[in-house]
Amino acid sequence: MNNLDIYYTLGMLGTVAFAVTAVLAVIPKQIDLFGAIVMGIVTAVGGGTIRDMILGVPVFWASDLNYIWVAIASSIVAFYGNQLMSRKNIYALMLYLDGIGIAMFVIQGADKALDLDFALPVGPVLLGLITAIGGGITRDVLAGNTTLLLKKELYALPLTFGVILYLIMIQVFPEKVKLLGTLCATLTFFIRAAAIHWKLHVPKWMLTQKRGIFSN
Amino acid sequence: MNNLDIYYTLGMLGTVAFAVTAVLAVIPKQIDLFGAIVMGIVTAVGGGTIRDMILGVPVFWASDLNYIWVAIASSIVAFYGNQLMSRKNIYALMLYLDGIGIAMFVIQGADKALDLDFALPVGPVLLGLITAIGGGITRDVLAGNTTLLLKKELYALPLTFGVILYLIMIQVFPEKVKLLGTLCATLTFFIRAAAIHWKLHVPKWMLTQKRGIFSN
Amino acid sequence: MNNLDIYYTLGMLGTVAFAVTAVLAVIPKQIDLFGAIVMGIVTAVGGGTIRDMILGVPVFWASDLNYIWVAIASSIVAFYGNQLMSRKNIYALMLYLDGIGIAMFVIQGADKALDLDFALPVGPVLLGLITAIGGGITRDVLAGNTTLLLKKELYALPLTFGVILYLIMIQVFPEKVKLLGTLCATLTFFIRAAAIHWKLHVPKWMLTQKRGIFSN
After folding, report:
1. Cβ C211 vs Cβ B86: under 8 Å
2. Which of A126, A176, B18, C50 suits a disulfide with B44, CB 3.0-4.6 Å?
3. B33:C152 CB<8 A
4. Domain boundaries of chain C, sorted by first residue
5. Do B79 and C157 touch (CB under 8 A)?
6. ipTM of the shown complex
7. Do the Cβ atoms of A68 and B137 come within 8 Å?
8. Cα separation of B190 and A110, whole Å?
9. CB pairs under 8 A between B and C
10. Closest-CA distance of chain C to residue A53, Å
C-alpha cells in the first residue's frame, strides 16, 4: 500500500468506528433499524458535513459515497450484532478505532481549511475540531444524551493539542507537511489511547472551580 | 387545476400540517406566541433548508415566501385555536395532512438532488428524507422532546421505502418521472395513513434485539 | 471615535457578553475549560454563522477573527473568574451587555439580508432574529438546557418588535437608514433592559391558553 491507500483505509476504519460506536450508544434507547442507520451516518459524516458547509464547498461525501456506504453497512452490522459488539473487548477495539478516527479527522479537517486559506490561523483549528467531534455532538443531541462537551473524559483536549502542534510545526518545517500530519495524528491518537486505557480525566485546573460564597 | 397547481396546493397543505402539528406538540410546554411561530416555521421549512444548504443552492423559501407566510399564519391559528385543533378529529386530520406533506416532500427533495446530479444514487434518498423529516427533528431538538428517530412509530420507514422505490422505478421507466413521483408519493402516504389508522409499529426484526448475557 | 468605531466596539462588547453569559450558564453543569470555550464561541458567533450559511455567503468571522479571539478570551476569563462573574452585580452587567448585543445584532443581521435583497420583506426579520438568538439557542441545545423559546422571559419579543419597526421605518425614510438602525437598536435594548430590571414576562394574551374540556 502506498501512503494514500493507508490514509484512505484509516479514514474508512475511522468511519466504521464512528458508526458502530454511535449505534451502540443509542441501542439502550430502544431505537429501530432506521434510526440506528441515521445515527450511524450522522456520526460518521456529520462533522465533515458541517465543516464543508462553513467552508462553503461541496460536502465531501458527495464525491465519494464510500463514506456513506461504509457508515450504513457498519450501522446495520452494529445494530444486529450488538450483543457481540458490546462485548467488552470488541467495544474497547471500537473505542480505539474511534480514537484513530478523531485523530486523523482533526488533522484532515485542518488541512482542508489550510488549503483554502480559511480564517488563518484559528480557522484550521476550529474546523479540524468540528470535523472530528461535530458528528458525535450531533449524535448526542439527536439521541437526547449529554454531549461530550459536558463530560470530563479526555476526548477533545488531545485533539486540540494535536492540531495546534501540527499547525505550529508546519510553520517551522513547511516542506514536511505530510510527515508532520502523520506524526501529530499518531501522537494525538496515543494520548487518546492512554486516556482510554487509564481512564484519564481532564486535568483539575481545567475543571470548574468551586463557586465562592459571594456568588449568587 | 392543472398538475402544477395540485402539487403546489398539496405542498401548502403539507406546510400547514407541519406548522400546526408542531405548535400543538409544543403547547403543553407552555410556549409563548413567539416561540410557537418559530417552532411552526422551523418545522415547516427546516428540512428543505438543511437540504438546500447541503446542496449548496439558495434556500427554497427565499424565492417563494408563501411557505413562510403560510407557516406563520398556521402557527398563529394553531396557537390560539389549540382547544379546537387538539380535538381528536381535527388532530387526526392534521396527522393525515402531515402524512401528505412528508410523502410529497420526500419525493420533491429527492427530485431536487436528482436534478443536480447530487451524490447519485444515495444522495437523493438522503436529501429526500432530510427534506421530509429534518424540520420535525429540529423541532423536537428545540423543544427538548425525544426525536422521532427514537420512536417506534412507523414514520420514517414508509418514506424510505417510497423514495427508494421511486428512484428504482424512474431508472426502469425514465419517461414517466412525473407519474411515478405521484404514484410513489401516494403509496407512501397510504402506508403512513395505515400506520396512523391502525397504530402500526416498526416490524419487530427492525427493533433492538435483547442484549446477550455477555454484553457489558 | 467615529460611528463605525462605536458600532464595532459595541459589537465586541456584545460578543464578550454572549461568551461570558454562555460560560456562566453552563458552569453548574461541571463543564471543563475546553467545553466552556466551545460554548462561548458557539454562543458568540453561532447566530451569525447560521445566518451566513442560509444567505450562502462566507461566514463573517472568517474575515475578522477578532470575534473568535474575543470569544475565546472572554470564555477563559469567565471560566476562571466565575466566582467574581456570578456575583449579582457583575452578572447583571453581563445581562445588560447581552441586551446590547442582541439589540445590535438583530439590526445588523437584518441589514445584511437587506443588502443582499434576500427574501424581502420577511427574510431580514428572520435572519435578524437568527443572528441575535441563534447562538444562544444552539448553546442551550448543546448544554441540554431548555431553550429560550420555551421561557416566558421577554427576550425575543422586543427583538422582533425592534427589527420590524426598523424595516418599516426605513421604507418611510430610506435616506436615514443609519440613524434609524441606531434608534431601533437603542429602543430594542431599552425594552429588553426594562424586562431585565422589572422581570417582565411575555404578555398574557401571547401565552398558551388553557386547553378546553373537549381537547384530547
Report:
1. yes
2. B18
3. no
4. 3-204
5. no
6. 0.89
7. no
8. 47
9. 82
10. 7
